[in-house]
Amino acid sequence: MDVVRAPGRAVGNSHALGIAHDNDLRTYVITHINEAIDNGWVRPYYQPVVRTLSGKLCGFEALARWEDPVHGLLDPCVFIGALEETRLIHLLDCSIIRQVCQQYRACVDNGEPTVPVSFNLSRLDFDLCDIFSIVESTAHEFGVPRRMLNIEITETVLGTDPAYMADMMRKFHEAGYQVWMDDFGSGYSTLNALKDFDFDELKIDMEFLNRFGEKSKTILASVVDMAKKLGIQTLAEGVETEEHQVYLRRIGCEKMQGYLFGKPQPFSVGDMHKFADTIGVETTAERLYFNDIGAVNTLSMSERNLTPGNPTHGYVTSMPLAITEFADGAFRVIDSNRVFREGLANVGISSVEEAERLINDTSRPLARQSRQLVETIEVEKYARLDFVAGDIACVMRAKHITTRNGKTALLVSIDDTIEQSERKRHERMDDLLAVMYTIYEHV
Questions:
Q1: Element (H or E) spanning 277, and its range?
Q2: How buried is residue 272: exposed, middle or buried, by Cβ count under 10 Å (0-12/13-18/19+)?
Q3: Within 13 Å of residue 180, how many CA atoms lie on the same side as its CB?
Q4: Given a cut of 60, is residue 397 above it in pLDDT?
Q5: Domains along the chain?
Q6: What is the pLDDT of residues 37-83, one digit of tens each?
């Protein structure tokens, strides 16, 4: 019996010592926060955000870290929790905002490329200080364009006074900042928050990738699909494997963040040149270009969305779609859905790579006609091309997405005419059933 009880006492003593240590740390944090800010112990670490379609660096998230001379690197859960409980968290957050702006200015002065930085705001930031004015004045002091600062808030920030928070979000939007929803999918009322507030981007909670099974994949695809229909961008957190990356690209998630691309690191002058020399740094023009492309939904688009005057974010029936770029006289498929990839075989093309080769072989009539199609699209925004692949009659339809810096992005569908007629028949049937269901509901 003594042998059994002794380990129990050891575990109990260890647990008690751990609690005492945490309490001591919390007390230390509360009594040293001002000293930590003044001495630079508290500073932002930056985690890279990567554009899914290009693989380039397109942003950072600034995360607060406390490098203490006595206790070393403190656990964020400890110091953030202590500061929130004692209503001192605004001191930390305002310091992080100031350092982010200072470091942006240092990059510009050093001739380095820059990308937008996001940072988190606590609900208490809105209660304990005029956080909007602080962000505004700090950005102005260091000459930071508002488009380079993104505000992250969680669902819990919205709950206590929704009307007030809606007004604060409106102020940030009207000033030119983006407001993002952090940890989307982690709370019980996430969809209500999405319904009641206007967000520019959803940061999808990393738990969906931590448990990366079929259910998670289905939910992720549905979230991205829904966000595109609402005109909201998507960013997946917790990306750690190539499998994650491939799947997120396939479903159209626009940005990725996680250890696959880098851990949070402190700022150093010259870092941005290193990114430029390795994965590349997204320019402002590229950001606008890919934002336009990211709004296109290839997951659930109807054939009617490819006709003139209809939006390019979709609704009903999946159809074979690809996003194709025309630049420097050549076509490149930068994204395609599963139906498109499978449908190429129906028109005698074995792969996306073969499709690129064929359409860039200017000795072929199809390649020359496709270039004429681009000229038509840049004026009329929509074009159709009938052609024969082998002995199969096909139709290519394309809709203009965006043109920037000599690059034109097109939404393209390639079909054999038999498949197209069959899908139109099914689509008309879907419309008829929808009308009948509406009538039934009103009887």
A1: helix 271-277
A2: buried
A3: 25
A4: yes
A5: 13-283 (3.20.20.450), 296-427 (3.30.450)
A6: 999 999 999 999 999 999 999 999 999 999 999 999 999 999 999 99
